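Students often ask what a holo structure prediction actually looks like on paper. The answer is less mysterious than it sounds. You provide the chain, you provide the ligand, and the output is a string of discrete structure tokens encoding the 3D arrangement of the protein together with uridine-5'-diphosphate.
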Amino acid sequence: MTASNPLFAVYGASGCGRGVMPLARAMLERAGVPAERLVFVDDSSAQAEVNGHRIIGFDAFVAESAVEHYAVIAIADGATRERLALRLAEAGVKPWTVRARETVEMDQVVLGEGAVLSPFVTLTSNITIGKHFHANLYSYVEHDCVIGDFVTFAPAVRCNGNVVIEDHAYIGTGAILRQGKPGAPLVIGRGAVVGMGAVVTKSVPPGVTVVGNPARVLDR
Ligand code: UDP
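The corresponding structure tokens follow.
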């Protein structure tokens, strides 16, 4: 396997990356690509290898001879994903979407580049999702939702229908987002954080953190 073959990377070799790597490996296996063409890229790992895959730095990845370079950014922090997406694009690395085999996508789902769909994620019908979305284990997105760029779902997020989630929002483990109405969606504002287990019954302004049931803005 040499320069005439593509090289694939999972960017980030910590908790998120180690959860994405087996999904990435399985995708490549199904496509007949050998596992040695799949590496971790990490800017500060002290290790040379984890879970059987090499860890290399960004410069080494880009310099490694390959017909194409692909990377999925497996880092939960959305701002970091945005910064690294730019860096990768400038270096000519193509964004890569990694899906677990046990995911369901129904009709008219538009999923932006560079997403991670973990096992048992369901995207139902008529959904639009932006770039570098992370949907962790068992999360779902129901009908008629619009999700922006660099949005992160921790595990088991229940995003019901007619919800709008703006760029860089973070939805914590087990949060429930109440269904909006056609023409009057429930909106999670840009950069808002929804705490774990929160039950969100009304729109959340940009930049705030909400917690509890019913979810309220956290005073700092
Ligand atoms: N990382 C990186 N480049 C960056 C920022 C982060 O390589 O510009 C790596 C970092 O070294 C670490 C991983 O990404 O190995 C992020 O790990 P962390 O545990 O903070 O987050 P998670 O894996 O939970 O998303």
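Residues 12-17, 42-45, 75-76, 80, 84 surround uridine-5'-diphosphate (CB under 6 Å).
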